[in-house]
Amino acid sequence: MYRKPVATFLLIAGLSAGAFAAQPSMDEAIADLGHRWAKISYLVPDAEKEAAFGSAITAAQQVAQSFPGRAEPLIWEAIILASAAKAEGGLGALSKVKEARELLLAAEKINPTALEGSVYNSLGSLYARVPGWPIGFGDKKKAKEYLEKALAINPNGIDPNYFYADLLAEEGEYAKAAEHLKRALAAPSRPGREDADAGRRHEANRLLQSIKQKIAAR
What we know:
mainly alpha, Serine Threonine Protein Phosphatase 5, Tetratricopeptide repeat, 2 domains
């Protein structure tokens, strides 16, 4: 007469264990967001990017809620929000970049070196690309300060060198920008980030060729 309760208990325990095992770790969840972002950024047609990033924002918010008090999910939520703002364009995107900035500042307070200094890469990129006052909070000086912090943390990384080169090129410092693009292209591959690295290298190559043409035209 004890077989049925024991069998029921074992079934419930097995289901609970299966459900627990199905829960991704934070690293797995972050990796999934990274792959999702790379696919949308580099493979999805421009006309479909805004909608694709919309669903990615929801996924990033869920990851951040699942791992409170961690900087990494906040950084990725901010990255996806900023990319969504770029895809959306116009003044309507300002609310997304402002939210992205707040998430990054919150992540900085938790762990400023998380994801190899991605807080500062992303803040630098935001301050470089967002319009300045009175429309937005853009500020090239702040952008440069943040990007130099990112380089101090990860001097050989593909992202900090690319973003810093992009800002230098915009300011007409082509020779210096070219040096940082070469560093970006020589950056060691990141395990699990091959898709993002391939897309970033394509961007770096394209910017480097544009800079070479401008230098030659001088």
